[in-house]
């Protein structure tokens, strides 16, 4: 009997959708939180713990979890490990794989493997089973418990909105801020999408008239002000092209504009979602041509483009085509491959992107992945039909 | 025919030593350096590139490689990837696996797999083959080319020597400095070992009389001075218990004391080497009892203990026992397991520590590793006899 592990059901590539009589393994009851190891800045939690519960558990100790994302109230740690989730602060802390010190998982053989649940910072004894299971989307093992690294909660955070003439300018700004030690996030937004968000939230964006391109830059640390001043001085932008938020409520208000993008898309109708990476040089050309690529097979479609610019990671949302019309997203992914990018930046492959794995990784790598799957799940009971074509 | 990949031959666990007619695959000729991608802060190099050649290649661009270690003039990037090398700055940048964005490797099947040689920051398309091969000690694939992340070269670095009454005090200091954003290294040294180094280098240590325990703390960044002042003020140590080095030549002079430890040991005779991790709470008890544990089977042996305290990683050098007398190191590793530590922090398992893998990782995990080995190297031609018991 096939087993389909499920956490908070926030995945976007149908990796936790049961098919053909498979049994759903609901992991949300594994939500125990062990005591925070403050000296080591680590914690062990059950796979069913939501990101928000984890955040609330560690916050009183002056610690934070390095990965944050919009679906924090329902996404579970197990699912985030299984999909190697990324989110808003990858530029500072890396994605889930960088936070996982150890884990416990049940393989397809029924064997329970544990790796470094004691949270040793260095443990070079054999293959990195934890890292391999992280990002395997429930196809190699079912994650039950995780040892996570924590980070000091930044004393102060500043959020800056920068209005810029183009995506190419945004990429230039990114190159300037990348090395700043307080850099916490760099998110891209565009005028046509912000106009949709304005309509959805029913209030005007802080920068008016809407600039063609907006960067949301978060700086965080003991004192991020010098980095902020240096950046603003270097850029020499007029006042009406910048807005600064100090303190958590104001910062959250700025972030709302970014986080409301998927909601604004959903308000228009069924959303086809792509989550892609471009190399730095491909970002501006991609954004410049993606709407035309969609339009070719879906005249009149609405295309939103936004995301984690610091990681080269863009989310493309297309509204208009029928649910079973794959042509517009296929055109988007073709464009991504043409620019040397990746068809999945952080959402994974799931069922939805399976046909693209060979194109992305090549025959030899996919054959090796199949061999690894057979090794840890010889009967193919774990999430069959997910990830591997 | 068995194949044994070799790089700079700086391994310490006999992972690159040929046996039984195996063919050595010398990778040092694969030493090509591609142009540094300055905007992305990345570079692609051949597996045979030495660490020093890599460092010299990227330095003119204001960039550094995040891993540094004493054998930099001969250790090769391929070997460092294969062993997931750690070194002096893991507390700041992580070990090799954290630096590897992508790689090319030849599997046991003869297939060449490439993963993310374009250096995309995020690529969530299938299993992390690069991360799995990293640390597999040449048993899953032979690394031929690597895409590496680089870090901005810190504008300034300060090295501080702190004389402390005990290892327990050193662990307390570590807890204070851990969250400082400029923290670059925290190394532990002890008076009896420093006395050997003084004899070896024929000059007196900067702090006199020799304190029982010395921490070498490196702070680095745009301006590490505030972190230094805060630390010195908080600790309230008398002047004769601290020494500060500003600038590269002075800093290198301080580091010489730490890096000369293995040389001082070698000057005494054949060195038995253990490389272990302890959890924070186990560090002081371990150091307090390790000499007695060695003494039980090797009366009169000299035991040096030093290492990367920030990672809980200690190097134990024992001089005195015969080359084939495993009892003293076995006693050290037993003590490590008793304190919840790891028998290999950064050197790997190789041939020398193979018998300990089961004890460290358990039957289920080692069985899974064997299955992974069979999957990528079905004929068992890659480094047989290494890592897996």
Description:
The structure is a homodimer of 389-residue chains. Chain A starts with a strand and ends in a 13-residue tail after the last helix. In chain A, strand 14 (302-308) and strand 15 form a beta hairpin. With 389 residues, chain A is of the alpha+beta class. Helix content of chain A is 32%, strand content 23%. The longest helix of chain A is centred in the C-terminal third of the chain and has 15 residues, at 283-297. In chain A, the strands form 4 sheets. Chain A has a 7-stranded antiparallel sheet with strand order 12-9-11-10-14-15-13, with helices on both faces. A 4-stranded antiparallel sheet of chain A has the order 3-7-5-6. Chain A contains 14 helices and 15 strands. Chain A has helices at 51-58, 77-82, 90-93, 96-99, 129-133, 167-177, 191-201, 225-235, 248-259, 261-266, 283-297, 327-338, 357-361, 363-376; strands at residues 3-6, 23-26, 42-46, 63-64, 100-107, 112-115, 141-149, 151-152, 156-164, 183-190, 213-221, 242-246, 271-277, 302-308, 313-319.
Trace the largest sheet of chain A across and list its strands. 12-9-11-10-14-15-13
Order of helices and strands of chain A: EEEHEHHHEEHEEEHEHEHEHHEHEEHHH
Backbone shape of chain A: globular
Biggest interface pair, residues each? A-B, 81 and 81 residues
Helical run tally of chain A: 14
In round numbers, the mean pLDDT of chain A is: 95
Number of strands of chain A: 15
Low-confidence stretches of chain A: none
Radius of gyration of chain A: 21 Å
> Structural class, judged by helices and strands of chain A?
alpha+beta
Portion of residues within helices of chain A: 25-40%
